């Protein structure tokens, strides 16, 4: 397997993992924000007469806005955290590769780092 196809496969796996993380975090965020929205609606309904006079469609709109906000903020937060973690892991791998290649007397170019990575992935 060439290093470009290994890189492509690794990227596709990472994209799928990021997507799965976003979906899970989005669902959790939607549940959490919807619960907050329901709680606030109940409190507003019993403590504010103007809110009590509003119809069900308006109240449903407010709850759906809470739900959508939960999906968006939850998924974005999880994706940013995942990207930061991947960047840290990638930097650590590249640091080790540069160190090992320099120790062998090889200039650590992108091509050499990719070759080093392919060799070390086969060994693991």
UniProtKB/TrEMBL annotation:
Transmembrane domains' residue ranges: 60-80
UniProt keywords, alphabetically: Membrane, Transmembrane, Transmembrane helix
Name of the featured protein: HIG1 domain-containing protein
Organism: Lentinula lateritia
């Amino acid at each position: 397997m060439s290093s470009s196809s290994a890189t492509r496969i690794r990227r596709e796996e990472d994209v799928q993992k990021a997507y799965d993380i976003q979906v899970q975090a989005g669902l959790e965020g939607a549940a959490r924000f919807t619960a907050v929205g329901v709680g606030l609606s109940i409190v507003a309904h019993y403590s504010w007469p103007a809110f009590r006079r509003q119809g069900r469609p308006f109240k449903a709109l407010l709850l759906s806005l809470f739900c959508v906000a939960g999906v968006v903020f939850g998924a974005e937060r999880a994706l940013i955290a995942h990207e930061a973690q991947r960047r840290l892991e990638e930097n650590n791998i590249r640091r080790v590769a540069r160190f090992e290649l320099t120790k062998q007397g090889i200039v650590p170019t992108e091509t050499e780092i990719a070759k080093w990575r392919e060799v070390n992935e086969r060994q693991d």
